[in-house]
Amino acid sequence: MNIKLVILGNGFIGQRLGKELSCPISTRPISSFEDVESVIEEHRSNVLINCIGFVGKNSVDECEGNRSKTLFANTYIPILLAEVAFRYNVKLVHLSSGCIYHYDYGNDSPISETEIPNFFNLYYSRTKIYSEAMLKTLNNFANILILRIRIPLDDRPHQKNLLTKLIKYQKVLNIANSITYIPDFIKAVKHLLAINATGVFNTVNDGALQYSRLLDIYKHYVTDFNYSIIDYKTLGLVRTNLILSVNKLKASGFSIRNIDNVCEECVTNYLEYEKCLAQAGA
Ligand SMILES: NC(=O)c1ccc[n+]([C@@H]2O[C@H](COP(=O)([O-])OP(=O)(O)OC[C@H]3O[C@@H](n4cnc5c(N)ncnc54)[C@H](OP(=O)(O)O)[C@@H]3O)[C@@H](O)[C@H]2O)c1
């Protein structure tokens, strides 16, 4: 298939993917069939990458205060896109989330794509569960690829980048989590597009990150930086911590790095990027 991509959603991940995949990002507000049809027509695209969503500007807790916007962006729009993709024989790549599971660190093994989502404590998570469930009903009839991202970590500053957040908070949890390192995620997206993959994929790095590991490397380079470790139970926020399996991603032929092995690269690239931004006066 001659792939003609278009990205919907001009946010953190949409912009990052748009640049790396060298494809257009539609900024058209989406609320109807006609809006989606216009995007396909304008860009002559046969693959839609849905990076539209509402995750809250600062945290997912904002979803509760923006209930209609959250449901619309995270549930209605994916269904709308899937229906249009089905009608026009267009591929849909949908960004889902790993924050849809409970995880028992004592008893559970990394969660595979076939396990049924069971984390209903956060409204954000419920809206992502709804859309996944609806899109999966078209599994055998439409070309739909669902990519589960979890806690994006990038090698450049951004308010939604885990590293930027941790540097700001100066407090880290003492619990290991699945992480999506964005440079590796981009490579995974290219691979999954190239093999025309469909269905659900956990697009996280192998292993699980203890945040202190990342910040210890950061501290090695920024010697006056300090942080403290806090217990998850004292955080006082409803969140889920979990580890996803990458066996399916690996079985597709993609070699995904262990998260521990990307930390050094992430921090050094991040600091280099920051230096360039400072030199450019940004
Ligand atoms: N960031 C994370 O931690 C994370 C983790 C796991 C999964 N994800 C998933 O990844 C996806 C992208 O997240 P992100 O971090 O890139 O979010 P983001 O930076 O907030 O970007 C979302 C984009 O969607 C746009 N949008 C919302 N409603 C729209 C509509 N009706 N029509 C057109 N555009 C609309 C927003 O535009 P406005 O700002 O103008 O509304 C924004 O540009 C989401 O589905 C999210 O659930 C994110």
Per CATH, the superfamily is NAD(P)-binding Rossmann-like Domain
Query: Radius of gyration from the CA trace?
Result: 19 Å
Q: Helix-strand pattern, N to C?
A: EHEHEHHEHEEHEEHEHEHHH
Bound molecules: NADP nicotinamide-adenine-dinucleotide phosphate
Average pLDDT metric: 96
Q: Can you tell me the CATH class?
A: Alpha Beta
**End-to-end distance, in Å?**
40 Å
- Annotated CATH topology: Rossmann fold
Main sheet: strand order: 2-1-3-4-5-9
What would the principal axes of the Cα set say about the shape?
globular
Q: What count of helical segments does DSSP give?
A: 11
Characterize the structure shown.
- With 282 residues, the chain is α/β, with parallel strands linked by helices.
- The protein has one domain: NAD(P)-binding Rossmann-like Domain (Rossmann fold).
- Helices cover 42% and strands 13% of the residues.
- The strands form 3 sheets. The chain has a 6-stranded parallel beta sheet, with helices on both faces.
- α1 links the parallel β1 (5-8) and β2.
- Bound molecules: NADP nicotinamide-adenine-dinucleotide phosphate (NAP).
- The site of NADP nicotinamide-adenine-dinucleotide phosphate has 23 residues, from α1, α4 and β4.
Topology:
Blueprint: E1 5-8, H1 12-20, E2 25-26, H2 33-43, E3 47-50, H3 62-65, H4 67-88, E4 91-97, H5 123-136, E5 144-149, E6 152-153, H6 162-169, E7 171-173, E8 180-181, H7 182-194, E9 199-202, H8 211-221, E10 228-230, H9 232-235, H10 247-251, H11 263-279
Parallel strand pairs: 1-2, 1-3, 3-4, 4-5, 5-9, 6-8, 7-10
Helix pairs in contact: 4-5, 8-11
Bound molecules: NADP nicotinamide-adenine-dinucleotide phosphate (NAP).
